[in-house]
DNA sequence: CACGATCGTTTTGCCCTACCAAACATTTAT
DNA sequence: ATAAATGTTTGGTAGGGCAAAACGATCGTG
């Protein structure tokens, strides 16, 4: 995120208010005011303005996010040209593997899940369309990091704040860089339970002929069904095939 | 939309800016400034603040909606408890009919499409998830209007501004009220090409045991494949069955 | 490649307005 | 029924949002 020189304070307030509504799933004036750290009156005016525009709706005295965001989300997705091309292949990955398959892109140094497809035995995770996470501890994240332009990778890594989510999480820049090198050689990135213990996965980037990274797809599942043999055997095979088809379709766009 | 007594002007500005980005699919400072009617400097500060929060991203000198909206959209959708229950039945409707099937809810007097499923021969329309339209000229809209609480219906109708989209569009309050009465008796609402000439459909509301309207589902298609016999025969039959299953599942929530 | 034109960004100062505190209205709890 | 808590509105003030202009970067063109 570039730092704004002259931020509009009132806008920042409103965004903070919206974030409280997002995090709580609906809140009342007093609760929002306490959370954001401003007076009740101020919060009320902000919520009223947002409501007038359909960004917030009021049920009784509880304010919630309005459905207008769904409209904006659709238009934001429009920017991802390869979306439609990708989803059908992710569906196939989920069906073939029986696991959870994901399509993720990078924005401002975060991985943003844009599509999920659940196979027969798919794990239940908190991942949803729009879910954001760090790049250094996921298969898709590392896949994208490994293949993006070097200067961008350096910039993103420089700003990373590593957090030890599980015993396997990489928390060192140079360990990460070594793994990225291995990923570039093999073409597949793995998550060996680095986000959630017992949850593993494999992913690969989607690139055009110039090498520009558009996103990544992955298959994730419990380690008990995804032993070494499968995780480094048929799963990468499925992913490679899917990526190949997607990349061919990109070219014709 | 309730009218705000003390709207926050700067927030309204920002929302106007976002709306320009939505409508244009990405714009530059000067263009946004002209469109919104404020100075370049002001627009720049707003965009910078939005960018800092991930709501807008900058590609070169063009600003576009950020993927953060996808996250917010997901949380907004959470409010619709029947969402997951409904989508699988809408999929079935699309497959059975081969046409386009929709799930729509009402918010602030507008119909908002929350899910679409395309059958084999589905028409290509501009309808997308998040798409908003008026209630008086669609099957889902009339279905919801017909079955909602009387006072709410009166209020919504009182604020309607009828527009003659096609020769068949209802533009008179009392003609609409008569049709709603017929819809309540039959249980199915029709769109006889009132939105787009040649595009017809049938829909029905989803209600709980108290009669509260949660939304509506519909099947729409070209009149050449949806003649009177089919539109008032097997199509309503499919819809009735789907609604029945959804309503049973609601009860168990 | 140079030059002008256009656009993006930053600065400045003024006027407005976003904010808080408090009063008032409404709802909730006991 | 009464009190306590919350939602909404009001007024005054100080901080900030705004337009205009200067500055800097970029684009297009001859």
Automatic annotation (TrEMBL), chains A, B:
One of its GO terms (biological process) is regulation of DNA-templated transcription. One of its GO terms (molecular function) is DNA binding. Residues 68-252 form the IclR-ED domain. Keywords: DNA-binding, Transcription, Transcription regulation. It holds the Pfam family IclR_C. The keyword Transmembrane does not apply. Residues 8-67 form the HTH iclR-type domain. PROSITE patterns: HTH_ICLR, ICLR_ED. This is IclR family transcriptional regulator. It comes from Saliphagus infecundisoli.
């Amino acid at each position: 995120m570039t730092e704004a020189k002259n931020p509009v304070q009132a806008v920042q307030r409103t965004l903070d208010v919206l974030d409280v509504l997002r995090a709580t799933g609906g809140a009342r004036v007093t609760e929002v005011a306490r959370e954001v750290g401003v007076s009740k009156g101020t919060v009320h005016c902000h919520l009223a303005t947002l409501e007038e525009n359909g960004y917030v709706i009021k049920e009784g005295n509880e304010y919630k996010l309005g459905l207008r965001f769904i409209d904006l989300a659709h238009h934001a997705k429009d920017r991802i040209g390869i979306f439609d091309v990708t989803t059908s292949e992710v569906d196939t990955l989920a069906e073939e593997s029986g696991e959870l398959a994901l399509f993720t892109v990078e924005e401002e140094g975060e991985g943003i899940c844009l599509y999920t497809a659940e196979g027969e035995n798919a794990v239940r995770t908190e991942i949803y369309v729009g879910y954001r996470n760090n790049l250094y501890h996921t298969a898709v994240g590392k896949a994208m990091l490994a293949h993006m332009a070097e200067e961008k990778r350096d910039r993103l890594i420089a700003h990373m704040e590593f957090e030890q989510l599980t015993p396997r999480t990489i928390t060192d820049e140079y360990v990460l860089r070594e793994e990225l090198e291995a990923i570039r050689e093999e073409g597949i990135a793995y998550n060996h339970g680095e986000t959630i213990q017992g949850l593993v996965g494999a992913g690969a980037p989607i690139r055009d002929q110039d090498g520009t990274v558009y996103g990544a797809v992955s298959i994730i599942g419990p380690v008990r069904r995804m032993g070494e043999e499968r995780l480094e055997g048929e799963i990468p095979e499925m992913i490679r095939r899917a990526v190949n088809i997607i990349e061919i379709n990109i070219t014709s766009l």
